[in-house]
Amino acid sequence: MNVAHYFFRSSVNSGVIGGLVGIITSGAANIKKYRNGNIDAADASIAVGKEAVGTGVATGVSAALAGTVGSSLILALVIGVGVKYAWDAGVEKLEEKYS
């Protein structure tokens, strides 16, 4: 079975692969910050977790909406960027409110 085909068969699977991409990219960036002493391990873990969830949600939503209205790569990218932007803005407002 083709692994890529499995992950992109549904919005949930797309969200999972998006979350994994978020872990990889954020993990790499935060390892560097941790090694340089800019953040501690707890802050690095929180940042990676937030990025994984946000990227997973954006990927899943973009796959669902693009699949509903048509399989356009450009549309999926635009939707994904918009959802990720809105997600990050919402998380930022919550962090400000509860800090």
Overall mean pLDDT score? 87
Estimate percent helicity: over 70%
Straight-line N-to-C gap: 47 Å
Shape: elongated
Q: Element order, helices and strands?
A: HHHH
Radius of gyration computed on alpha carbons: 15 Å
Topology overview:
Blueprint lengths: L2 H5 L3 H25 L5 H29 L3 H25 L2
Features:
single chain; 99 residues; mainly alpha; 4 helices
Q: How would you explain this protein's 3D organization?
A:
The chain has one domain (3-97). Helices cover 85% and strands 0% of the residues. It starts with a helix and ends with a helix. Helix 2 (11-35) runs antiparallel to helix 3 (41-69) and helix 3 runs antiparallel to helix 4. The protein has helices spanning 3-7, 11-35, 41-69, 73-97. It is built from four helices and no strands. By secondary structure, it is mainly alpha-helical.
Summarize the structure.
By secondary structure, the chain is mainly α.
